[in-house]
Amino acid sequence: MKTVRLKAFAKINLFLDVTGVEGGYHTLDSVVTTVDLFDTITLSCRRDKKIVLKTGGGLYFVTENSDNNAYKAAALYVERFGVNGVDITLNKRIPVGSGMGGSSADIAAVLKGMEKLYGCGADLKAMADELGSDSGYLVTGGYARLKGRGEKVESLDIDKKLHFFVITADGGVNTAQCFKAYDAGEKQAAPFGADELVAALKDGEIKSEAFFNALYAPAITVNPNVEKAYDFIASLSPAAVAMSGSGSSVFGIFDTIELCEWAKSKAKYLFKNTFVLESLTRDEMEKKSAFFKNIYTPAEEV
Questions:
Q1: Does 38 lie in the same domain as 90?
Q2: What is the mean pLDDT of residues 162-176?
Q3: Does residue 196 contact residue 43 with C-beta atoms inside 8 Å?
Q4: Centroid of chain to Cα 157
Q5: What is the widest separation between alpha-carbon atoms in the chain?
Q6: Residue 69 shares a structural domain with residue 177
Q7: For 50-71, how does the pLDDT look when each residue is reduced to its tens digit (9 = 90+)?
Q8: Which bin fits 121, alpha (ψ -120 to 50), beta or left (φ > 0)?
Q9: From the centroid of its chain, how far is CA 256?
């Protein structure tokens, strides 16, 4: 039986602005990077067409398999290419409702795993885009600029290593509710555009005012715990602070990992879900997620 194991990496939005509405969906302009927080996904070929999903990790348990995006990704691949099914074990580490792209990362990883197992020559980005806004980007990851619903991906030549202390506020943020609050509320203009942030990062600089999220104000109306996390991180004097996605994760950027660990120690008794993370380029993500290294050795078919 063929088996593959993959890491499905999270992302952080360094900049996010809402640019309009198209086809009933909000369009965005966002600068993102992958980070070294990941779900672990193991896929094994089946001899029938069934897809069996098991989940764990202490953060999320699926009650209806077919509602899970990892399941949907496998089902799309099976339907599109007529291949056999797959057993999926999904170990969650990326919190649900965190704004760090956990379900999108799972979609990308499952599709990559299915392609590794069955080798049908799939256009993985196009398939991922059918299932989730950031999923196509997370097939390759790294620094990128996303536009539209997230399907327009421009890879960015940035190698600046960013060190993050992240708090995922209790309660999460429902994306639909956040956008509803955005539509109803006063719009906040970005002090600088995405171009300024990209230019600064390419120069190896942290321009604190350029980190921005237009969804922060509506997110704190949906979940006030987001503001508590933001204010706490801001009190620690990071180089920059902002929210990822539609929440509920807030990040501070510090000069070193040691400072991030110090910040985490300060939050120890105040917040449940805290992380010390680093940005990953495309090459770094590929090396760390590899099907071929460390965590994955192809099993011989039986």
A1: yes
A2: 96
A3: no
A4: 19
A5: 61
A6: no
A7: 998 988 755 444 445 778 899 9
A8: left
A9: 22
